[in-house]
Amino acid sequence: MAERRPVPDRESAEEDQPLLTAAKAGRYGLRHIAELTGKEPEGITGVEPTEDGWLVTIEVVEDRRIPSSSDILSAYETEIGPDGELVAYRRVRRYARGRADDGTG
What we know:
Mean pLDDT: 84
Number of domains: 1
Low-confidence stretches: none
Oligomer: single chain
Strand order of the largest sheet: 1-2-3-4
Strand content: 35-45%
Number of helices: 2
Helix content: 10-25%
Shape: elongated
CATH class: Alpha Beta
Order of helices and strands: HHEEEE
Radius of gyration: 19 Å
Structural class: alpha+beta
């Protein structure tokens, strides 16, 4: 009788693949938002792991004004999959640059 060898399950095969780091997920998020919105990203304001990838929050200049302290900014949340591809995005805030963040979102 032939010896039975365990068949590797899908999870263990995925563990052998390189993981998407927070820094790479952030860079992917920046690139995707710039491509989709045509707007200039100011920077990344948050990166956090999710069950299936990363949630990256990006601040974008929506409308440049003079003086620049009156620019209109937006915060976008991007869901980045483990392969670096964009899964979803949404604008979560829109505000004037000079307005202080009151923490209410």
